[in-house]
Specification:
Radius of gyration: 17 Å
Shape: globular
Strand content: 25-35%
Length: about 200
């Protein structure tokens, strides 16, 4: 297993490090300059230089700045991403997890479902068959996604949300915690409630 650099140093990053297999060696945390607090194991992005061999990175930033930070990191250093799937995850043999994604404990992912690059699927989420979650998507803890649901790039699904079958949610959307999504949602919108409604 390669050595790993963690992008981000917040609570979620620390949780992921706690859950990583002991055979993986975490070298350091790299953070955006404005979040650098001079901790021993933390390096600001502007000062990071890759002097390591056989190293990969794992992005544990939950905020919507994840895409921007990964792209900036990739411009500075040529390091490949690592995906992390916790050992307790049920992952169908017919499902796919793409580069750099994190799948937390207790998640269930059914057949013919595709999780694209740099997604975060949080604890206890259930994703049904024939679903797609596009790159940089975030699925909160305890979310239930029925079959044939398609979620766009950089969209965040809040904790405990339920999404009914055959729904499409666009890019750059936010679905508030505990919502029930019963219809398609266009790009760049925030929805919340039971049933979920557009928040202006």
């Amino acid at each position: 297993m390669p050595d790993v650099i963690i992008l981000g140093a917040g609570t979620f990053a620390k949780e992921i490090v706690d859950e990583i297999d002991s055979t993986i060696n975490v070298i350091c945390y790299v953070v955006q300059d404005e979040f650098y607090y001079n901790k021993i194991d933390t390096i600001p992005l502007s000062k990071f230089k890759n002097g390591y061999k056989n190293v990969r990175y794992l992005c544990a930033i939950v905020s919507t700045k994840r895409k921007q930070f990964i792209e900036e990191f990739a411009r500075r250093v040529k390091i490949l991403p690592l995906s992390f799937i916790h050992k307790s995850v049920y992952l169908s043999k017919l499902a796919e997890i793409h580069n750099g994604s994190i799948v937390c404990p207790g998640v269930i992912i059914a057949s013919n479902t595709f999780i694209h690059n740099h997604c975060i699927i949080n604890r206890g989420a259930t994703i049904g068959h024939n679903c797609t979650i596009q790159s940089y998507g975030t699925v909160g803890p305890g979310v239930n996604i029925a079959g044939n649901v398609h979620i766009g790039e950089q969209t965040t699904i809040g904790m405990g949300t339920n999404i009914l079958e055959n729904i499409t949610i666009g890019n750059n959307c936010i679905i508030g915690a505990g919502s029930l999504v019963t219809r398609n949602i266009p790009n760049n919108q925030t929805w919340y409630g039971v049933p979920a409604k557009h928040i202006q």
